[in-house]
Fold this protein.
Amino acid sequence: MDQPTPGFQLRFPTGMAPVACVDIGGTKVALTIADASGIRGKWSEPTVKVGASDALAQQVIRMIEQGCAQCDMTKEVLGTVGVVSCGPFVLQGGMVELAAPNICGGIAGKARGLPNDWTTALLEVPLRRAFANVRIENDGVGALEAERRWGALQGLDHCAYVTWSTGIGVGVCVDGRALRGKNGNAGHWGHSFVSDDRDALCGCGNTGDVEALIAGNAMARRFASLGFSDAAQLFAAARQGRADALEIVDGLCYVMGRLLFNLMATLDVQRISIGGSVFWHQQDLLLPRLRAQIGSKLPALTSGVEIVPAGLGESVGDYAALALVL
Amino acid sequence: MDQPTPGFQLRFPTGMAPVACVDIGGTKVALTIADASGIRGKWSEPTVKVGASDALAQQVIRMIEQGCAQCDMTKEVLGTVGVVSCGPFVLQGGMVELAAPNICGGIAGKARGLPNDWTTALLEVPLRRAFANVRIENDGVGALEAERRWGALQGLDHCAYVTWSTGIGVGVCVDGRALRGKNGNAGHWGHSFVSDDRDALCGCGNTGDVEALIAGNAMARRFASLGFSDAAQLFAAARQGRADALEIVDGLCYVMGRLLFNLMATLDVQRISIGGSVFWHQQDLLLPRLRAQIGSKLPALTSGVEIVPAGLGESVGDYAALALVL
């Protein structure tokens, strides 16, 4: 495991039992251990995708046990293990398993090059065998809760957090409560349809959903033939004023703008905060274009609704699992 | 006012105070008065759209007073006045006003031919002056609650009701609670964007939203030039197997199918029930096509999610305001 990195500044309740906070993504698994004295350590590893279908869960358990050892504690003293993960989730006997296209080779097919044939990755059953208290949420819900607690959505009963990153994820709060849904999958707006493109293939198997059109992992696939081998190259060209790159950026913002409008029209939110690696590094380019996409569309539903950068900046993911257990 | 029509069969709590239930639509205002003995009377009138901006509210008040008189009661004995209304709502000092494109000439512009220049129609302030207890909800929320209570969504914590009628309205329940939003406008999925059409103009001022593409009031506008002067003519031709009509019907179901998929993907519901005049009379034609649009798209989010006809059939609207007050 990597060495722990310095913790960010949060206040922790006096006498709080130690907590382990895990963020499972398609690329890496991140762990934070904290107690009343603050962040005790942070570690991350590449997401395990080989072996039996519980290999990822065993990785999480091992990381927590090793992290506890490095903090001179046993896993038995942990108050709660909070886990945020990419989805979708499926429930087997009420227990969460991951049906995540970026992790499970059995869903995505060999075309995605994943080194396993898992249809799901086990998660909740092995974790509950290993730890006394476990809470698992969609990473969109965790990030939303973090933004509501410490970020740009504090004090709001009706709001959404959108991550524009390798994938597209959303967490929504309506009437003061984060939406979960029957399997904890509310918020998969990245897989919603807002336009008609029938060519862009998503990892989920659909064509033309938002993630297929504008996620970080879609850009090389869509724009390499236009001379942009990745998002960085595309945005660099746009910054130099190249018309072809700017047209693509406008097209990306058209799609994300429709997603944001749909959030406003269907969930009547007060504010939407946006984070994620694609957005964060290009926000000066993207934010004005996204706001212009809403413009004066249907004022009764959009008037006064704010679109703002994530208050937690690039660290939303770090805070997401902490928000579940604090 | 019309004569009262026979009530439908519901059980009312013993000792229940009388209630007045109002359904405000763009075409008509419907009133039901009920007490412990059952439905006492039902009346409806065309929606008043002339006069001062409180003319519609005054119509509602007058209808209730006249209805009470016909039931040999005074308005003072009413326990609650429940109102469901088309939206969107805007709040002025915390009180609901209607910014409904089919009622307010000041929003929709002269092109819509409305005989007033209201930007909003007053509602909650005059009603609260006239009655002790008033509850107002988006008609999508009311219909959802009726379907959850007496219809096809009973016993479900995660579900949606979709009306496919003159307009498109939706009510959604997630985690056991009907979603309302900051101004009670959650559910305006009719104004969401699911495809790229840039020609179809909606009453809300947008182009290409779901309502502009497939609502009952859009069909003549969109398909007259193809030889179908209204929905009835279009569906009749489709039933005769005419290829051009069937192609249009497939196109309508493509749009509604995307809306249904988006509901599943973003809100993780268990079941969606559909009503409304367009759907109800053509459900044998529409339902298989809508289900086919979902097909095997993203099974982790859609598997097992049912699309069913409204349990309350054509009477969902009648029950909607009752569901608020019973």
Notes: Confidence is low (pLDDT under 50) at residues 1-7 of chain B.
